[in-house]
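Protein modeling request. Please complete all fields; requests missing the sequence field cannot be processed.
Requester role: graduate student
Desired output: 3D structure, C-alpha cell encoding
Chains: 1
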Amino acid sequence: LSYAVMIVIKNPSALHSLCKQVYQVVADHFEVKNAMTVHSSIRNMVDEICASGNFLILNAMFGFDHFKKNDHISCGEFIGLIAIYYTLEYYKNDEFYKSGKMFQGLE
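Delivered output (107 residues):
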C-alpha cells in the first residue's frame, strides 16, 4: 500500500489507471507475477479497515466527516486520500497525527 501511495504522490494521474500505472508497477517492483494480486491484497486491507471502523480515522485526518460507519471505500479512493494527505502536507499541522492517537489500536 505504501508503495502504491508513493506512486500516486509522484504521479497523481496514475489514479485514473490503477491496474496499469499502480498495481502493475507495484507488482513489478516486488516481483509479483499478477497485478491483480496486488489489487486483491490492497482490497483485503481496505475491507478490513472498513469492517473494523478504523477508516473513520480519515475523517479526523481531513478534519470533517466525509465517511460514515457503513460506507465502503474503493482502493483508488483510499490510496488517493492518503496521497493527498501527504502531498498537501496536512500531517504537519495535524494535532491528531502528532498526538499519536492515529495509531492507537493499530499495534
